[in-house]
Design goal:
Two copies of one chain form a homodimer. Helices cover about 35% and strands about 20% of the residues of chain A. By secondary structure, the first copy, chain A, is α+β, with helices and mostly antiparallel strands. The first copy, chain A, folds into three domains: about 5-200 and about 370-455, 3-Layer(aba) Sandwich (Aminopeptidase); about 200-255 and about 305-370, Alpha-Beta Plaits (2-Layer Sandwich); about 260-300, no CATH class. In chain A, strand 4 and strand 5 form a beta hairpin. Chain A has 14 helices and 18 strands. Chain A has helices spanning about 5-15, 15-25, 40-55, 120-140, 165-170, 220, 230-235, 260-270, 275-280, 295-300, 340-355, 380-390, 405-415, 440-455; strands spanning about 60-65, 70-75, 85-90, 110-115, 115-120, 150-155, 180, 195-200, 200-210, 215, 300-310, 320, 325-335, 360-370, 370, 395-400, 420, 435-440. The interface between A and B is large, with 103 and 103 residues.
């Protein structure tokens, strides 16, 4: 191993405790983007990154305002002719914490128990940003950077990045690069380095069904009007059949069938139903007939109610017919489903099935296509080698169930591929109570990123 | 008209404004029984009645503790040999106020707008209690009572009166009477005095469906586990068919069919679909095929979701598969449905239809049979005559959609019939925001009750 690379690795090992302590300050900021009460916290998190980037002697460290939460931009030139430019993407916003009562420690007081650090946003993904910054710090402690770096850290990912694409479109020259490093995915297990090459798309909707003009007494009016709570249940129930197949018009029309090769790749993953059962804590798995769990997650579309509300949900009983009901319903898409067509099918289904005399409203929270990343790029090779060096084994290549819309945006607007990595684990409870980071994996993640930058 | 009766009516007319002002103090007490935060208010309301009854020189004015909210008891002997004894039933508890944001004035600040006084519990039924007390006061101002009186005012009616039956069973001798006056129903319209002779029963359930051990990320796990929010929608949707018929096993087995005579009685009611449309503010009515609206309300059973909740219902989006869901579901029963059999059919339906791998829990909030009151009792005749005197027209006889379980209890334990009256109107928004009382009707109601007591 060249001397500077070894020095950088040594620096990371020696300063690990210090890295963790610094990170805790960043993680303690409750940068919840969905809730306007946390607007000041979002700004604190952005400013915290500005300080950290200035501390690493980045140039042009800027806060770019958007309609809602700002984007942090920074760049650093390594001064080496012909050096590649890596654009590092991250998001410093985090999911809401409710149901708060299920957290075993305060969501924004990073708390170590065993090998895990429990904190909202640790795994998804402030911890991943911090690992990247500490990899850069380690490299700089051993000499100059091997590549040019640009960073964009947004504050709206958990909102579906409503302002990112327009901002990127307006800064195409500034963001010019060879490859994007996106450390917002994870590994299948602590000893299974993973490169994600497929991501599902997402159409996230909200519907509201209106019935009577106001809440009614269910004794006086039960039986003579449509109850919007019953109606929304009927609508949702009709969106799937008993085999788990989605019944919205045209939903599967453009779904690429899985090739025998892809199916055998899925089978080779060191991960199966038992693992999924354990992670979910469900008594039994269930899904679309004819597919394995990993195929269902990685390569099949789905539809889930993320939230539903109507009427009286307090303690005890209230004999009310609610005036309205609402549900948040999201669909995960796979190649080549078109979000616009999916949305239209969803709207058509409701229009075709909602009873007359009941009104409904539609809102779309986010919408993006699925994507597949080219596995033969130099950056994927650099990452593969880095993972092999650190974990002593070649990575698995995986299609994942989540959405990273920015990958599509980078392809479309900057013409570059993203390399998707990250050191979260499937049981990190992201988007759920007791989110956590597996610290031994995070530590190795820093070393992996050091190697990645040198390998490029 | 005998002189004392006329004096009593005059007293009521002269003191109307004073009555209203006094009543506002009573109505301002937020005696919400479903919420333990209002425990002290419930006690204040009970004590307020104690003072009022003592002010009317009732004897044996007592507060009887129950497991939750107390019963106020009082009695007064008129000293006339052979006089009848009337047991007055009322409830001083009120419905919760949410959704609070839809109230146009504070729910517990009685506010007059036009002919209406807006306040939670005015129509249902603290205002009805007050009208009764003011009728008694008016009679006493003109001389002695024509009947013996006993009062029970409970604080748990909106909870389904969980402790009333046991308490009545333990005080059968104390409560001995000839008839019960229950002013917890209403009139069809301001000029349509009404006597209710039929009431629906109620089975009010709550179900909770459990899926994964904790909330899951819908990207990482969407498609491989049952989503409890989707499952509860599927279960609820299957409880009714597209014609509004309830599909629970055995649900209609014991429903008494409507006789041609009953159907023509329903047709004669000066009230129809247009009125129901107006009161509900719905764009269109809907219900079980083959029945009119009034038949559906008065003589057909129904099933309604009163509340439903699962997952993330805040602003924005959260890509979560919820760990659990819950719904409050109530069924209105008609003669001769048996609440125990209905509950068993409900449970059987869910057990037969819930997917494996999903757990569920059942809770019953209240359960009571429907009832029909004998229209040929002397008390019904006394009320009919009183209504004719005050409004100049004979009352209509009506079967109502709500439940008054205490009527059944009085039949069973005390062997007496109830006469069901009251001066609420269908558009009083009971159990809804902006509950109100129509004050001209309330004023005439006091006069009607004065006549009723003299007529007995």
């Amino acid at each position: 191993m060249p001397e500077s690379r070894q020095q950088a690795i040594n620096y990371a090992k020696q300063n690990y405790s210090q890295f963790v302590e610094e990170m805790k300050t960043f993680l303690a900021i409750p940068s919840v983007s969905t809730d306007d009460d946390h607007r000041a916290d979002i700004l604190r998190a952005a400013n915290h990154l500005v300080s950290a980037l200035k501390g690493l002697s980045f140039e042009r460290v800027e806060i770019h305002e958007t309609k809602r939460h700002p984007i942090v931009y920074a760049e650093k030139n390594c001064g080496k002719p012909g050096a590649k430019t890596v654009l590092i993407y991250g998001h410093y916003d985090v999911q809401p914490v409710d149901p708060i009562e299920l957290w075993e420690s305060d969501p924004f007081t990073p708390t170590q128990r065993g090998d895990h650090l429990y904190v909202r946003g640790g795994s998804d993904m402030k911890g991943q940003i911090w690992a990247t910054l500490k990899a850069i710090e380690s490299i700089q402690s051993a000499g100059s950077l091997p590549v040019n770096l640009k960073c964009i850290f947004e504050g709206e990912e958990e909102l579906g990045s409503p302002n990112l694409e327009a901002w990127i479109a307006g800064h195409v020259n500034m963001l010019a690069c060879d490859v994007v490093l996106n450390p917002d995915t994870g590994m299948l297990a602590p000893n299974v380095p993973t490169i994600v090459y497929g991501l599902r798309g997402l159409v996230y909707t909200e519907i509201k069904v209106h019935g009577p003009a106001h809440d009614l007494h269910s004794g006086l009016y039960g039986g003579v009007v449509h109850n919007p709570a019953n109606v929304i249940c009927m609508l949702i129930a009709g969106m799937k059949d008993h085999d788990g197949r989605i019944t919205l018009p045209g939903f599967y029309d453009k779904v690429l069938p899985l090739s025998p090769e892809e199916r055998s790749q899925f089978e080779r993953l060191p991960f199966g139903d038992e693992d999924v059962l354990k992670q979910t804590g469900a008594e039994q798995l269930w899904g679309e007939k004819g597919f394995t769990s990993l195929e269902r997650i990685g390569a099949r579309p789905t539809l889930d109610v993320n939230g539903i509300y109507s009427g009286f949900i307090g303690e005890g009983s209230k004999t009310v017919i609610p005036a309205w009901s609402m549900a948040k319903i999201s669909m995960r898409l796979v190649p080549d489903q078109d979000p616009v067509e999916i949305r239209e099918g969803f709207i058509k289904y409701i229009n075709d099935n909602i009873p007359s005399g009941v009104r409904w409203e539609f809102k779309e929270h986010s919408s993006n296509k699925a994507c597949l990343v080219d596995l033969n790029s130099p950056a994927v090779h650099a990452l593969t080698k880095a993972q092999e060096t650190v974990w002593g084994t070649l990575p698995v290549y995986k299609r994942e169930g989540g959405s990273v819309p920015v990958v599509l945006t980078m392809q479309k607007l900057l013409g570059v591929e993203s390399v998707l990595t990250g050191f979260s684990l499937p049981d990190d409870n992201i988007h759920a109570p007791n989110e956590r980071m597996h610290m031994p994996t995070w530590k190795l993640g820093i070393e992996c990123l050091i190697h990645f930058f040198y390998n490029l």
